[in-house]
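Example with several molecule types.
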Amino acid sequence: MKISMRKPVIPVGPVHPLQEEMEYFQLTIDGEIVTDIDVNIAYNHRGIEEISETLQFDQVPFLVSRICGICSASHPLAYVQAVEEIANITPPERALYVRTIINELERIHSHILWAGLAGHFIGYETVFMWAWKYREPVLDLLEEITGNRNNYGNVKIGGCREDIKPDIIPKLLKELDLLEKKMDMLTKAVLDDPILHARLKGVGILTKEDAIKYAVAGPTARASGVPIDVRRDDPYAMYGALDWNVITQEEGDVFAKTVVRLLETLEAIKIIRQALKKMPDGPVMTEVKDIPPGEGCGHVEAPRGETFHYVRSDGGNRPVRHKARAPSYVNVPSFKASCIGEEVSDAMITLAAVDPCYSCTERMAVLDSQTNALICGFEELLRLSREKTERIRKGI
Amino acid sequence: MSWKLWSLKKSPWVFHVNTGACNNCDIEVVNCLTPKFDVERFGIKLVGTPRHADALLVTGVVTRQAAPRLIRAYQQTPKPCVVFAIGACACNLGIFRKGYHVVGPVDKILREVDPNAIIAYVPGCPPKPEAMISGVIKALGAI
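Resulting structure tokens for the full complex:
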């Protein structure tokens, strides 16, 4: 008699205490080893690209900063760069420096946030509490500069809404000094900790070949030895004029990702110091007239990787097409390479290691209600395209 | 006051449900637990399952996919319980009100299954941790 055994499956989510957002992982296991993984998302899909087409050009930055609350400076900057490319606007130099500073402050708070959550995932609550305690002054600085702890809403087409006022700068420098000391201590504590070495080294390895194959972005790629960074490869804002290093590690495991993120916070502090020193006086806005017809792209190195925005204008006051691609969209499929073959107890930290952000990533697919078939799949599009050719051929 | 309500007011344990937020309210909720704000000194504790919770912290617009999960989490919570709609999206959909995948604010979805649900609103985008703590204390004081 043949006994058919279904492989045991561990469901994680959609509502799970370790996850901030709703997402669903299906881990197929064989003993303790994960043999397959399936990710099911779209619990957070809000249809932002479609809402964006109903808003005016100047209102869209407020919407796209709410794509993801943690990257809420990167998304508007990418969008604004796309619109500036259409209209051929060059913002004043001071505005570019302000954008650089706010983006780097965001990177600091996002990386510390991740370091804390990683500690939480492996049951190391001390790292969690300490890291989040060090993050608070950064949020206070952002509140002082832009008026809000998150969702800064500071970037606008042609410049910035708020300048960094001269009386804030001494406080900013003082806080950066304090933060650098604390981050230095935290980095050394994490790098020298024997428990973290034993727990994270060799776990969830994403090899260089896999990193290139899955086209991952940001710290995930840099931890696997792929030195890509939009800030260096295609400088925007004022990154081209500043002196800083791209941090890379060769190992590709969770420990390497931690090291890359922690060292990047120190690098970000260096960038902010230089920017504050070099920042010229002057206005932070240029006057913007109509947006002419055309299309433009903008990309920004968000804390998680490259954020890409595409905008098309028909000369009216609204974008006719707006496309956003967030870094987690390319980082999430790399679970197939990094998670399979690991133990179940290592799966959670491996999944968390790319710092996935599902509210950025959510996409929608249209299904046929009768057959459950994808309407917008590749095969279907190919068929539709061929049918159209056929129709045109018959018409002629 | 029944003993159930009396016991609800002391040391509320909360469960956090994200129904389509942008992560912003969520990180501020977690921020409340960390050393600067430290709500555990008031006995407010984040728990891992709705079955242990006295209050639900709901963040974000309710999307089509998340609505059944929110209702299920609410039904699993022992009654009486307080639902906190945290952030502009959870209160009245905010900037996402025109979205095609958005089915409604938290109160509309929950009142469909339980017309007597106790819902407290904490507006803001995102509300500051101080606002959240004050909201929790005000709501419990009003019971």
